[in-house]
Amino acid sequence: VGEGRPGVAATLRALNGALGRPVTLWVKESGARNLRHRDFLAPRAALSAAFPGGQVPAEAVSAVPSLRGPAVLPLRVCRQTPAGLAVQVRRPEAFQRLLGSLPGPDPTAAAARMGCVVLHCPALLGPAALRPRHLRPVLLADHLAQLLRAQGVGVRLVPALTEERNWEVLRQLRIDWPSGSGGSSFPDAVSALKAALGRCPCAAACEQGPGTDEGVICKVHLKSFVEQEGLVGYDPNLDVLLVTEGMLQSLAELQEAVLQCSVSDSTALPTSCAEGQGSCCSIVHVVNCEEEFQQQQLDLLWRILDPGAHTGLQKHLVCGPVKVTNPSSPIGADQYFQFRKSQMYEASVMKYGELAQDETWMEVIDTLTVAAIRFEMLSTAHRSQITLDLENNSISTKGTKSGAFVMYNCARLATLFDTFQQAVEQGTYPPLPPVSELNFACLREEGEWLLLFNYLLPFPEVLQQAAQLSTPSKGIRITVNTETVCKFLIQLSMDFSSYYNRVHILGEPFPHLFDQMFARLQLLGAVRDVFHSALATLHLPPLSQI
Q1: Are 161 and 180 in contact (CB under 8 A)?
Q2: Greatest CA span in the chain, whole angstroms?
Q3: Do 110 and 464 contact (CB within 8 A), yes or no?
Q4: Which residue range forms the structural domain that includes residue 450?
Q5: Rounded distance, CA 334 to CA 178, Å?
Q6: pTM
Q7: Are 411 and 351 contacting, i.e. CB atoms less than 8 angstroms apart?
Q8: In this structure, is the dihedral angle defined by the CA atoms of residues 301, 303, 307 and 313, taken in order, positive or negative?
Q9: Residues in domain DALR anticodon binding (predicted)?
């Protein structure tokens, strides 16, 4: 443990460096079949492109097992195979180092603050009731906020909720969103924006006529501004915008969020950011595809009225359409929640009988419902369309692609450790020894290495990659890989379930069997911690029963 927690990226860097080539040659294996023979591979094709005749110098090959580093896995052997150069890890030592460290992001990440991000969800503006298509960007923003915070990034969520009927829907879905008092806020900022409009060469008075919307202040020529500034990525149909009081109110709230970022993070940010009055504060508009045009209008209006560095850091995270297979009538977000809840309730009654109708189960049903909806909305790449089946009345609590399946396996782990603890209290087993006293050479079942190598090892990097905001070389759209966490949890659940169904963890209370049982419990305790950390980014509490 003193050598530090091993990581995939650090090990791959060390392996690439050992071969003395400035290209990426090595890949991490993940399939059970290949992991029986090797853990890392430099494929034959890559070696042929990097070395004459594909022949790696013998001294380079022999040096690979001696690679060392604070985050480098302990390597056992490197050999030539028909598939390429294959490396195996010293597995007992890898178990020792990984299971003696904490899960989750690198502990240094939270200390090294990386600026601030304002996540703006225009779907929450206005009095209209939320629909499933509105929920998608809100759930995405909520999940992304958790991922960013875990990496030490400050996050502000806007707009503040003012519509009471939407509070209840978001509360049911465990969406932690700030609320406001309603009415007009930030009057000084709105007045300043109006004054800026009066000085703006792109703005012109708007004649009030029968066809003019109420509350229109003036009109602004967006197209000429885009052309003048050489901006790219905006809709070519953007032309004249009729500016309303509501738009200025939205901009004032965004300005206030940026100011809060600058003030709260100024002590943690680099000097250049702190002196730039928020220049390290990125603004991400999380919108569904139907709102994208309107949000681009607001983006440009803000750039025109407040030409500070932060307005130039605006990016748009666009969600694909949400198709609902219910042709009868539009469905609200609250109806969607209740539909999924009734499905989960019926499925639980069918599986567990009268027990599932007990009041103590209602919170479990609510959590399963939230999990089902969050995985339904977030396990698909945000750019792609998702289809909500609201016609089929059946839903499984164990479908391998559902959030309920993930929660089910999390609960199985809780039951395992509860059973073990009860057995310890009854004197059946001794308590779990310290990790330094465990014999990880007992872990020889292939499912055990699969859990460690594919899930415990890369988990911090999975969280880090899911929180990365990919900045395009040009344009205003960005993408994030937030679906990674849901997919990670689903695959982890499948591999854990397969292992758990195959291997008996709590064996007979014979001393000669304790070494293996304790090593397995330590492994599964780390798996449980990964479940809990990943579910926390989805605002899902772990279940102790299901």
Answers
A1: yes
A2: 90
A3: no
A4: 361-381+388-537
A5: 19
A6: 0.91
A7: no
A8: positive
A9: 406-546
